[in-house]
Write a structure and sequence with these properties.
Blueprint lengths: L6 H12 L17 E6 L4 E6 L12 H10 L6 E6 L12 H6 L4
Parallel strand pairs: 2-3
Antiparallel strand pairs: 1-2
Protein name: SUF system Fe-S cluster assembly protein
InterPro entries: Fe-S_Maturation_MIP18, FSCA_dom_sf, MIP18-like, SUF_FeS_clus_asmbl-assoc
Organism: Pseudotamlana carrageenivorans
Length: about 110
């Protein structure tokens, strides 16, 4: 019998994975930086992540979305993962969590 996991619990696991991925130029994870706009999980445990980058010409524009996709796919419960990059709305420092601002000395 396969393990049933609800989408909220899986969402938490995905967020925990996202918190292990760091922007190489800023010592804060991409979740706390506010780069993750949304995480969608359907009933088949397919995941879609809507995220942005700090700038459109970010040096990791090619590699960071792939890293996010691969790490999320590594969760046993996830059947598939897709990352969509958007710049609407553009990322600003206001999207950072209090934790990220504190880490960067902005508070």
């Amino acid at each position: 019998m396969s393990e049933n996991i609800d989408t909220a619990e899986l969402g938490e696991k995905i967020v925990n994975v996202l918190k292990t991925i760091y922007d190489p130029e800023i010592p804060v994870d991409i979740y706390e930086l506010g780069l993750i706009y949304d995480v969608f999980v359907n009933e088949d445990n397919d995941v879609k992540i809507l995220m942005t980058l700090t700038t459109p010409n970010c040096p990791v524009a090619e590699t960071l979305p792939l890293e996010v996709e691969e790490k999320v796919k590594s969760l046993d419960e996830v059947k598939g993962a897709e990352v969509e990059i958007t710049f609407d709305p553009p990322w600003t420092q206001e999207l950072m969590s209090e934790e990220a601002k504190l880490e960067l000395g902005m508070l």
